[in-house]
Write a structure and sequence with these properties.
single chain, about 190 residues, alpha/beta, Rossmann fold, 7-stranded mixed β-sheet, two-stranded antiparallel ribbon, 6 helices
Amino acid sequence: MARVLLVAGDATESLDTWYPYHRLREEDIEVQIAAPVKKILHSVVHDFEPDWETYVEKPGYRILADIAFADVRPETYDGLILSGGRAPEYLRNNSELQRIVRHFVEHKKPIAALCHGSLILAATDSVRDRTIATYEALAPDIERAGGKFQNAEVVADGNLVTSRTWMDLPFFMREFLKVLRASQKNPARGAKAL
């Protein structure tokens, strides 16, 4: 059975976390939610108002983190999902999370980042020369980190899958599951390194 690590923190986007969690479980894939510490996380809901130029934030569901970053042995996981929301703004500075992400990058394992989750990849120098779909306001962050921003519902670039927002979740998970299954069938199947 494949194992996936799903990264979240306080102010993680509710749908960005729960949708992948339940979708993976539907496929009999073991999934663990990792956070800075093992605790109940407070998620948020980002929504779009027609007369606003940006999103609004509301309280979301509580989410139990299964494991603290410091306790994660990344070699025991087959894939990584970086949830969106406001959490990645501070999670990207966590040295334990950076250690985890670098393991997945170095071993060319499947990685997926949704919305602001791409900030974690940028902070670990993992978007250079890669095409990234993310929330449009983050395009300058991606480009400054050496990536190419693409305003698309999903981009699969080798072992890396990215999407803009929770509205793209069906496409995001479809592509991530393809990449994960391919890596399980043939672990040496040269995914483009990050």
